[in-house]
Automatic annotation (TrEMBL):
Protein name: DNA-binding transcriptional LysR family regulator
Family annotation (PANTHER family): HTH-TYPE TRANSCRIPTIONAL REGULATOR LRHA-RELATED, TRANSCRIPTIONAL REGULATOR
Native organism taxonomy: Bacteria, Pseudomonadati, Pseudomonadota, Alphaproteobacteria, Hyphomicrobiales
Occurrences of domain HTH lysR-type (ranges): 4-61
Domain of life: Bacteria
Pfam families: HTH_1, LysR_substrate
Molecular function GO terms recorded: DNA binding; DNA-binding transcription factor activity
InterPro entries recorded: LTTR (IPR050176), LysR_HTH_N (IPR000847), LysR_subst-bd (IPR005119), WH-like_DNA-bd_sf (IPR036388), WH_DNA-bd_sf (IPR036390)
Keywords recorded for this protein, A-Z: DNA-binding, Transcription, Transcription regulation
Organism: Ciceribacter lividus
Family: Belongs to the LysR transcriptional regulatory family.
């Protein structure tokens, strides 16, 4: 009887799920070379060619397609057996900045739950500055935030670009204070906006302050104000108005993942989260 290496089977299924040796290596926390070696050994053990690989394409062979369902069943049975050895659920608290969280977040959390059903995640939504303070105090275990100031720690997940957004009917006359909506006085994005306006000598007045990102988005969508948004998260029906109103360009930033988690399973869960974020994050406009 042929005995199969669970890690090799997991490598095969992960390659199939991500259609990439590189992404499979990221998810499994290993190297592309190690993934290739595991797949080769599995194929040799089975005497089958499971994956067809070209410089531009990774896909299942006909024999791989037949084996795939059995491979998933084997991994599921293995995971159930391991989970049955422990009745203790693990948990960690994750902070996600409100101006980072987009429609992809439920998908990310679902992916994380599928990766490790025994892991309970407590999610906290707040602005980046408050989450960074909470992370430094040890109140949360991990945070996905916009990079703050000159702080260089953390894993970079993606660049973040900002713009001035308003409705096509929003009226701004030169010489009048720009009507501005912002999340809160402690919001770093608000600081970026007001510093840029001050440096350009543009008068401004806040007509909406606080109330959460949905209130700010509603104010802008109603044509009552303009606001700075991530270019990927601007409210529907709005447009980028930097050139139209002669507003100052805004510096880009980075979205980073901070974590104090050190155990192997939690680190693996974070790698899964980071990979899923990159895959599901909508492109900037």
């Amino acid at each position: 009887m042929t005995a199969l290496d669970i890690d090799a089977v997991k490598a095969f299924v992960t390659i199939v799920d991500h259609r990439s040796f590189t992404r499979a290596a990221e998810v499994l926390g290993t190297t592309q070379g190690a993934i290739s070696v595991k797949l080769k050994r599995l194929e040799e053990r089975l005497g089958l060619k499971l994956i067809e690989r070209t410089p531009r394409l990774v896909r299942l062979s006909a024999q791989g397609a037949v084996f795939l369902d059995s491979a998933r069943d084997l991994l599921a049975a293995h995971d159930r057996a391991i989970a049955g050895l422990s009745s203790v659920r693990r948990r960690f608290s994750l902070g996600i900045a409100t101006h980072v969280a987009g429609p992809e977040i439920p998908t990310l959390l679902a992916r994380l739950n599928a990766h490790d059903p025994a892991l309970t995640i407590e999610v906290r939504l707040d602005n980046s500055r408050n989450l960074l303070d909470a992370f430094d105090r040890g109140d949360i275990d991990a945070a996905i935030i916009r990079r703050e100031d000159d702080r260089r720690d953390g894993q970079v997940l993606a660049p973040e670009h900002f713009g001035w957004f308003a409705t096509p009917t929003f009226v701004y006359r030169e010489g009048e204070p720009l009507r501005l909506a912002a999340l809160s006085p402690s919001c770093g994005v608000r600081d970026i906006a007001t510093r840029a306006l001050d440096a350009a000598g543009i008068a401004w007045t806040e007509v909406f302050l606080g109330g959460g990102s949905s209130v700010v988005a509603d104010a802008v969508a109603a044509g009552l104000a303009t606001a700075v948004f991530s270019c990927r998260l601007a409210p529907a029906g709005t447009m980028e108005v930097t050139e139209r109103f002669g507003l100052p360009p805004l510096p880009s930033s980075e979205i980073v993942l901070l974590s104090t988690l050190s155990d192997a399973k939690s680190r693996q869960a974070l790698r899964t989260l980071a990979t899923a974020f990159r895959e599901h994050r909508p492109p900037s406009v």
